[in-house]
Every structure is written in C-alpha cells, then in structure tokens.
Amino acid sequence: TVLHGSYTVDNDLDLQAFADAGCTTIEGNLTLTGTLLTHLMGLDRLVAVGGDLTITENAALVTLSGLNQLVSVGGDLRIATNALLTSLADLGALTTVGGALSLYGNATLSSLGLGGLTQVGGMLSVSGNAALTSLAGLESLSTVGDDLNVWSNVSLASLAGLEALTAVGGTVSFYRNGALASLAGLNLLAH
Asked: What is the 3-state secondary structure (H, E, C) of 95-116?
C-alpha cells in the first residue's frame, strides 16, 4: 500500500503502526530524528520513499535493519550524527537517490555497504565520519549529479569503492582527510 504524505518515526510504537499498515511506499518524507531506537524493524516492507529520508541524531541506533528492501529515495537521503551506527549495509538494495546523499558525523561508521547504489541525482557528501577508512560499498556508483565532497574523514585512507564513478556534475572536493595519500579509485572519472 501507499502512504500519501509524510511519516515521522519517534519510537517503537510508530514502527509497529507502520508495519501494521503494510506500507511499501511513502509518497512524502520519512523522518527518524532524535529517537532512542536501536533498529528500524517495522519498515521492512518499505521499497520507496518519494521525498526525503532523514535518519539523524539517533543516539542508540546500531543498525538500519528494517530498510533492507528500500530501492529508491526520490529526494535527499541524510544519515547523520548517529553515534553507534557502524554500517549502512542494510541499505544494500538501494539503487537510486534522486537528490543529495549526505553521510556526516556518524562517529563509528566504518562501512558503507551501499553496493546497489548506481546514481545520486544531487550532491554526494561524506564528511566527519571518524572511523571510515575507505569508500568501499559504493562500487556500483557511476553518476553523481552535483558536487562530490569528501571532507574531514580522519581515518579515510583509500578511495576504493569509487572505481565505477564516471560522471560528477559539479566539483570534486577532498579536504582534511589526513590519512588519504592517493586519489587512486577515481580512474574512470572524466576530466
């Protein structure tokens, strides 16, 4: 079924209500901000979000389990300041983000796991993820519609994962990635 409009998840009861409704598509935005959730089970039938998907400031969130079936986000996808989130592998089915993809300030994020992602329509920003050592998990990404910004990921030592990237519609910017010694991995990117 389709949920017309937007949905906000604040707690387990909201997840259960969404599961009980059997929704596969949200036409508007899905927002999970400032919750104490540890997982996202209850969203496990969700295939598409027409608007933005925002997952921010969830202090106890350790996994995105529950978003395993999500294939597309029509707007922006923001995953930020989730202190215990270590991997995005539960978003492995995601193929397209119509707007920007922003991954920032996830202190323990060490693995992207977005292997199905082929296109980001807007900007791709990866910044302030202290435990991230590479961009592995973006192996299928071929197009970024706007800027590519990789900033202040202090442990980032490799751009492995960007080997399929052939087009960036805006500027490419790498800044304050102290462990990054080479731009190897951007070999297919047109100059």
From this structure: CEECCCEEEECCCCCCECCCCC
Global pTM exceeds 0.85: yes
Mean pLDDT taken over the chain: 96
Using DSSP bridges, classify how beta strands 72-73 and 48-49 pair: parallel, antiparallel or unpaired. Answer: parallel
Q: How many CA atoms lie within 13 A of 51 on its CB side?
A: 14
Q: How would you write the chain as a 3-class SS string?
A: CEECCCEECCCHHHHHHHHHHCCCEECCCEEEECCCCCCCCCCCCCCEECCCEEEECCCCCCCCCCCCCCCEECCCEEEECCCCCCECHHHCCCCEECCCEEEECCCCCCECCCCCCCEECCCEEEECCCCCCCCCCCCCCCEECCCEEEECCCCCCCCCCCCCCCEECCCEEEECCCCCCCCCCCCCCCC
Distance CA(97)–CA(34), nearest Å, equals 23
Query: Which residues are CB-neighbours of 13 under 8 A, at least 6 positions away?
Result: none
**Number of CB atoms found within 10 A of residue 143's CB:** 16
Residues 6+ positions from 17 with CB-CB distance below 8 Å: none
Rg (CA), the chain: 16
Residue 189: the pLDDT is 83
What sign for the dihedral angle of Cα 144, 150, 156, 157? positive
